[in-house]
Each structure stands twice: as structure tokens, then as C-alpha cells.
Amino acid sequence: MRIVLAYIILVSTLSFGQSNLKIAFLKYSGGGDYYANPTSLPNLATFCNKNLNTNIDKETPYVEVGSPELYDYPFVHMTGHGNVIFSPSEAENLRNYLRGGGFLHIDDNYGMDKYIRDEIKKVFPNNEFVELPHDHPVFNQKYKFKSGLPKIHEHDDKDPQAFGIIENGRLLCLYTFETDLGDGWEDPEVHNDPEDKRLEALKMGANIIQYAFNR
Questions:
Q1: pTM of this prediction?
Q2: Residue 27, SS3?
Q3: What's the CA gap between 197 and 184, in Å, rounded?
Q4: Which residue among 12, 92, 108, 142 sits deepest, i.e. has the most Cβ atoms within 10 Å of its Cβ?
Q5: Number of independent structural domains in the chain
Q6: 189: domain CATH number?
Q7: DSSP for 135-191?
């Protein structure tokens, strides 16, 4: 019954017509810095409200993976540099949330990759991350990214990649790697990124939001 009710609640909020859309950071255990980019989501919400005519609440709290409050937020963002651990009950809660209509965006802030892949296997043991092609709809919302993800921070000088967990044709989880979108969403003085790079990051973030709320 809880899953059915959660699905009804989530589906009813997955629309740009909603008067007050809610997004949140995902809080997890393991010692990784889930709090790494505190200004990122409020800034992304402001950008979307201005450029997509959304009404996203700029209060973006931290919600725990295993909490029933997760279902109050149709879109959650996860970031960090280090270790991630999902307990069995947390993995189940996240799986039910995503299958019920929620959306998870994971953005590796450099150093998270080797941990998050194992933990997502707890959530979806029978699913693998698949790389999204450049013509995927997430790259073709209001803003067009013909070459896929923009590169915001260099780190290991690898090409940025976007991966997804897909079930029954639905993208439930988007994982962005070697791009650092969240850093680009932060206040300008945090990383001193060039304005064009920061704008690229915000535009790609807006695409993710638009895609997630209009699937």
C-alpha cells in the first residue's frame, strides 16, 4: 500500500504545471561528503525558475536515503567525492522511490565513481548503468547539447559521460561522470569557473530538471 500511495503522490507532482516543485539533496552514509556543493541546487532552482518558467522551491533540504520523506521530493540530487554505503533497507526505499516515479541525479564530484557503482547494484541488482547516446532526450530539452555532457572541470582529462538506469523504457537514475555539473551550479566565487562554463553547467542542469519533470 505504501508503494502505491507513494506512486500516486510522485506522479501527481511530476509536472511543470505544479505550483511549487520540490527538489532535494540526497544524504547518505559511508563518510562521503554528500554536503559538498551546498549552493548548487538553490542556484539551479533560481536558473530554472527564470529560464524555464518553473516554480521550484529554493529551499533544497537534505533527505536521507532510507527516509519516508524521500517521497516528498520527486527529484533528488546526489554528489560527493568519496565513500557511499546504502543499507539493505535504504536500497529498498530508494528502489521503491525510483520505480514509483521519483528521479535521482548522481553527479560524481571526483572520487565517487568506484563507490556509487557498487551501491547502485544494491538498488538494482539486475540492472547495469548504460551510457546514454548524445541524441538522448536529456540532451535535447530547451538547451541542445549535440556532443552530450559539457566538461566543467578537467580532473583526469577524460571525456564526460552520462549513464542511466533504465527500466521498461524509463530513465530512473541519471549518473553524470567526469563533468562536475554541481560545481558549475555553485556560487561563482566558490570555484571561480569562467562564466561560460558555469552557464553550460546550469543549462545542462535545467535540461535534467525539465526532462525529469516531464517524463
A1: 0.92
A2: strand
A3: 7
A4: 108
A5: 1
A6: 3.40.50.12140
A7: TSGGGBSSSB-TTSS-----TTTPPPEEEEEEETTEEEEEEEESS-HHHHHS-HHHH
